[in-house]
Amino acid sequence: MTHAPDMRAAFDAADADRYDLHARHLNHQMVRVLKTIGFDARFTRGKGAYLWDARGARYLDLVSGWGVFAIGRNHPHIAAALKSVLDADLPNLVQMDVSPLAGALAERLLKRAPWLDKAFFANSGAEAVEASIKFARAATGRAGIVYCEHSFHGLTYGALSAVGERLYRDGFGPALPDFHEVPFDDLAALERALRRRDVAGFLVEPIQGKVVRPPSPGYLREAQALCRKYGTLLIADEIQCGLGRTGKFFAVEHFAVEPDLVLLAKGLSGGHVPVGVVLMRRDVFGKVFDRMDKAVVHGSTFAKNDLAMAAGLATLDVIEHEKLIENAAAKGERLLAFLRRLAGTHDFVREARGMGLLLALELGEPKSLKLRAFWTMLETMSKGLTCQLVTIPLFKDHGILVQVAGHGSRAIKLLPTLTLTDEDCEWLERGFTDTLAAAGESAGPVWNLGKTLLEGARAASG
Ligand SMILES: Cc1ncc(COP(=O)(O)O)c(C=O)c1O
User: Measured in angstroms, how far is the CA atom of residue 49 from the centroid of ligand 1?
Assistant: First the structure.
């Protein structure tokens, strides 16, 4: 090798062709989406809660890589931790030994869940979900998995079989057998599903991430009681809502619930090295790893690799040192109050909801006749298109990157870094206030944009 690799130079060299390369070799539909809504901004840099585009304009990132950048992008503490691993020539992934860094990370995570004793590491959220399904089945000797409507748990087959949105499942069937859907927040339906005592695990997001739906106050506690009554393990998928996002380390802490298994991933990576984990009770773990000849009965080659473990340890340092959980609680409270004020001001905003820094603003049919005509036209064309009338001006006019909560959803979702400052909140509040005020004018630019989008969509489908 004659020269040191320079990935900034490699990035720059491919930058001019980035959309063409993707259209040709990767996901061409994603390129179409970005170009249609004008999000093809060519981001060139990321730091903390911000992104910069090719023109040097700064954006406030309220998507945070789908929650991966809980501690912000390119945090220097994570970079230092990862560089120190590379510099130390550690005996990574020996496989016929055990990893000290994995032991240290497991101990730190389990200190946060004193009712649990064991950790199982994976390489992603979906892999953690897969593991939890296997653990639940092995521990109970039952096949059933109960999951909720509108849930999201990942896109591998086991996880997908527990996803409550048709878009992700259609065309990929059959799903795994013995998976049963129940409405979220419905205890009677849950009891009906558990009563036959053939359900291994109830897999639930304490706060549903895709649609941003917190449960009623007593739901999870009662669900836990039902699980105990019928011998079902309670599996809390905290992959999106955990790690401080809701203002507590685990979202279940808000509801005084102690699940038998708790899953984390996303933000634990520090935004750099994928990692997932299942925290669980000793007896559940022991049912899978119950004999010496089964010491490797479940696992994955790259799980527990030193870079992932270092990213996890450094992420916990940052969360604690920068008091990000407290910050998520405070900024979440401020922003939820702000979004509720918007809901009270605009007749096309139905409600604001969420906890901590997992928030949503749901639009609804306007009462004003003129706006309602536009609304109906857009919604008939494509359900959820009206949300883009808010996300596009937020992006173009205010430099705020935000997403629609899901396919066909009418909710705009806020999943920012946990590092938001008061100035960031003001930026966000200004952007939303102006954009929604403009959307309230039936002759204004927002609805013209709607017409343009409609024409574009018609042309594309014609
Ligand atoms: C609640 C929840 N569970 C599981 C997953 C899957 O994680 P991954 O994309 O890392 O496989 C996600 C991803 O969005 C999620 O939000």
Answer: 21
